[in-house]
Amino acid sequence: MSLQHHLIQASFDKAAKQYEQHAVLQKESLSRLLERLGDDLKTAPKQILDLGCGTGWAVPELLKLYPQSHVIAADFAQSMIDQVPQHPQVSARVSDAHAIDVHAQSCDLVFSNLMIQWCDESTVLQEIKRALKPGGHLHLTTMGEHTLHELKLAWQAIDDQPHVNEFVPAAKMADLTMQLGFADVIADSEFITMTYANVIDMMRDLKNIGAHNVDNNRPKGLTSPKVIKQLTKNFEEFRTADGLYPATYELVYLRARKTAEDKGLPLKIK
Ligand SMILES: C[S@@+](CC[C@H](N)C(=O)[O-])C[C@H]1O[C@@H](n2cnc3c(N)ncnc32)[C@H](O)[C@@H]1O
After folding, report:
1. What is the per-residue pLDDT for 2?
2. Does domain 5-258 have CATH number 3.30.365.10?
3. Which of 59, 74, 187, 192 is most exposed by smallest CB count within 10 Å?
């Protein structure tokens, strides 16, 4: 993915104030991830890292699940971190997932909802592994390759520019995680469809949650009324029975464990 790091950071920084109001999909993904976590993790983690925590709305939920845990809430957008709920068991910090500001082998659980798709996945997974204690767990969600396929197809009929971010297939994420030496890797995905009254509302929503296209090769500038009209026409075949415009997300769940023997020696990955 050729995403521009500084643009993503600026975009989330700007989106922070209205983030919770618009992030319906993220909230849904978060509650599904928390549910799986509760089912999977049998012992309470002492230290949890919520990586790419956003405004920190997972934090109270994590403390509800694990009342004795300490939570490190990390995000690279200062205005997201400013909104993390304050609590004696929570430390919030501005930190980039590509070089996480935590001690090596200090976390029992790394939890991350819809962040890694904005990153270099391999670097971040290696950082997560460094942060985890031997035997520690990783639970995350990301976007799969079929995400926003309707919007992608509608744009393809207009030009061949990248209007929708490219996401890594679930199987490839699992392979990468295994190559990096994680054990018990499981990746699966499900589809969530959001519907909008029109294409403009859809694109505005993507922008409000900081999820619009930030590909290096993206076309710059505003979308003209003529193009919006064309896009709306191209969306016709996807409209729902009640006439709404769908945006389908492929939500990928990835879970893995750092082996008990893994003391964090660096791994060479091609
Ligand atoms: C879609 S939001 C999800 C926020 C939160 N996890 C939630 O469930 O609401 C993605 C978050 O990841 C953060 N993020 C993206 N790239 C990051 C990076 N390289 N390092 C740290 N945070 C990052 C963004 O600032 C944003 O807050």
Report:
1. 46
2. no
3. 192
